[in-house]
Amino acid sequence: MPPKMPRAKRPLAETDPNASTGRTTRSKVAKLDAPKGKENKTVLGAKRTSKQDSKRLKSLTKHVEEDEGLEDYANTSNNRLGWLLLDRGLPYGTTDERDVMIMRLEIADATAKELNVPPYTPPYFPPTTADIRNAEASSLKKQTDFASKDNSKLRSMLEARKLSTYGTRDAPVQRLEAHPTVDYEQYTTDELSAMASRRHMRMDTTGPKAVKIARLRMNDELKRDTGNTPEGELYGAISAMEMFVGAFRRDKDRALRGDYSFVRSFCRPASTLKELLHERNLPESGNIATKMERLRKDDARRATPFATRIFEKRINDARSEWEKLRVKFEEATGRPLLCVSEDLNAESKLHQRDPVRNAPKDDPPVKHMVDYDWRSSRWADRNRHQLVDIAKNRGMPHASGAPKAAMIKWLETGEIEYEEYYTTSLHAMCSERGIDVNQTKKKVEIIRLPKEHDEEKS
């Protein structure tokens, strides 16, 4: 277990001679012995932390080198993380773990800052008159392709036109084809907001009347009624089966090539490896790495690759479930099922055109976690990993859970405050002190807990 947080006891005069003067401080987490002497190769090559600290380093320290970064991502919803990845052209899959998404964003941030690369901004080419005309024609075609839409969507579109929803599928389609366009101008702003709310559109009350109308017309391009929750769940279930079939096929192909790294992405990799070993009559003992190496050695002894069959059952089970869901889908929607994933992908692209989402935002200026002029420090040219090693070797508590500015501040002044740590480090501090913390608490609430603990101790 890492050492408990010591109390501040030494005067500032004993710290690094390059320390900044004239700074007032608040409650301190640590004020330890100052760095002794200049950094040299011995310190940089010092021994790494224990296995326990290494695990904590991996789980707590995928942070960028600036003060902001992890705090924003840690408090960002999974859906927003996905949008951020897509906006930056980074890999993204709907099954990605939250930690993986955050790690990709932080690595991209850190790389851009190390190389002094400005944030990526896609080039803007003003649309021509022909582009606008083509886009409007394409949108209208999707809006009026009534035969491709779900029954519930047809009813929603009939209601918007104040037409009868009576009849089987053919009758509503014919009625809509006779009245292909809808006059949203006839509705008040409140009525348009209510209509958007019934379709479960986000920020349904946002924007003036023209924006609400534009968003409703975009929603009319979709094949499904976004306000129909049971059908939405059916779309999700079918999409999951399509994803599973594709994933199992890819895993089967990778196994044929002797690449077993895919098992690490499974919830229970040990059971998958056990099946792979069992069908070859190979020993099933050892850790994951040992088992994977055993499979590779067995492949090397064979003239032709071993054709595993464990994925056939998984593929067949997923396809069987997809078939059951297909029957429910076609009964509910009234149209044949081709590929739900394609429909949902088209829906995602449509959301990127949302005028509310793309509206310019008057964001407040970024508030840095650490109010310290670290850029003029002699430590400023060190990268984050070097600073973590240096600060740890000199005794900084939870060095791996602090931003670069906080580490430099501690190296120069011996002081750091709870507010200057990442939230993940604060959780670790509370855990070490036996303080129960609700994971949903905000940072300002978590900071109060170790402070109160310190006051009780003193």
What does this structure look like?
The protein is mostly helical and 458 residues long. The protein has 4 domains: 12-61 and 367-457, no CATH class; 69-124; 129-220, no CATH class; 229-334, no CATH class. 51% of the residues lie in helices and 1% in strands. It contains 19 helices and 2 strands. The protein has helices at residues 41-44, 51-60, 70-74, 78-87, 98-114, 129-143, 151-160, 170-178, 189-198, 209-220, 229-256, 269-278, 288-301, 310-333, 340-351, 384-393, 404-413, 423-432, 443-457, and strands spanning 30-31, 415-416. The protein has a two-stranded antiparallel sheet. α9 (189-198) packs parallel to α10 and α18 (423-432) runs parallel beside α19 (443-457). The longest helix has 28 residues, at 229-256. It is globular. The two termini are 22 Å apart. The relative contact order is 0.13.
Rg: 29 Å
Q: Give, in spatial order, the strands making up the sheet with the most strands.
A: 1-2
Number of discrete domains: 4
Alpha-carbon distance between the termini? Answer: 22 Å
Region (Disordered): 1-59
Biased composition (Basic and acidic residues): 30-41
Protein name: SAP domain-containing protein
Biased composition (Basic residues): 1-10
Protein topology:
Elements: E1 30-31, H1 41-44, H2 51-60, H3 70-74, H4 78-87, H5 98-114, H6 129-143, H7 151-160, H8 170-178, H9 189-198, H10 209-220, H11 229-256, H12 269-278, H13 288-301, H14 310-333, H15 340-351, H16 384-393, H17 404-413, E2 415-416, H18 423-432, H19 443-457
Antiparallel strand pairs: 1-2
Helix pairs in contact: 4-5, 7-8, 9-10, 11-14, 12-13, 16-17, 18-19
